Amino acid sequence: MIRVVTLDESLHDRYESYLARRGDARFGHDLAWGHVLRESYGVDTQHLIALEGESVVGVCPFFLCKPLFGGAHYVTNPFPTYCGPLVDSSEALNAILKAVREKTSSADHAEVLSPVPLSEVEAGLLPFEDRLDYTYRLSLENGSEEVFNVFSRDHKRILRKTEVLKEIELIVDTDGNFLDPFHRLYVSIYAGKHGFIPHGKRLFRAIFRHFPKGAARIYLARINGRFVGAMFTFWTHNEVYYGWSAVLPDSVHHPTHFLIWKIIQDAIAEGYRWFNMGEAARDHHGLNHFKRGWGTEVLEPCRYFIPGLSAEPSPRLFDRVGWTRRFISKLPSRMVTTFLSPAIRFFL
Hints:
With 348 residues, the chain is of the alpha+beta class. Helix content is 33%, strand content 27%.
């Protein structure tokens, strides 16, 4: 018989051992990510672990968020990617989902986010489903030459202009020493261009502090002493995940392409199986076209809404408040990071 319990310290070793033997674990499943979210935004970790006897047969990251508006709710990962249950069987999955439903009865709702649709789910456990994004993932198992061959003609053409590399300095930061230039670029793009509230440095410092060395890396491009691009990546389990990117437009040097290619080459050299380019909203045609150009496999992640005190699904926050983007984009960067970034904890 399978029983599901809330993870406590006595089960940490078994939880981590289970992740280590899975081929589909992601950084969002790691206990380190829970420490980061708690330290940065006060998110409470209530992960679930399914046991058959003393053997672990499934796990599910589970975070309790307490926003200023909308009521406390659970989510399997608040950002930046889809992470959900990992199980050995449909029995374990359904046992975990029943535990999710039971916990959710006293909360506003729960969201189970999965990188792929969940199958063999008992009727009624997942009553609402959204498919809002695509995820783009590139297999690295065939080596650099074969990987390069699957790129689009445009991407190949740009990467063959190797003479521009004489002017671009590519930097790999595994310690967070270049967090300041990354964050300046990130704020300028996310807030100044797109009107999103960027995460503060506190989050990124916590990532470097809680994850082992090399599991978080910033890739940067510098031209004539000026940083023109930066990408924050996670290197865990079998996957490199492209978490946050901030690159200035440059149709001569194309730093985006050379940064991505550098990440891919490093990942292949270190034996990683996948390069995950992250998500793109289904209606963002330009971004979808760009990510498909790297020869990626397209996944259809799912957002499952489980009712609690709220009976109907609610749209994602950034889909509800799109009108604020124009306002945020006009604010000075210092004002955004000083007053708005810390407020993210009230809207998760």
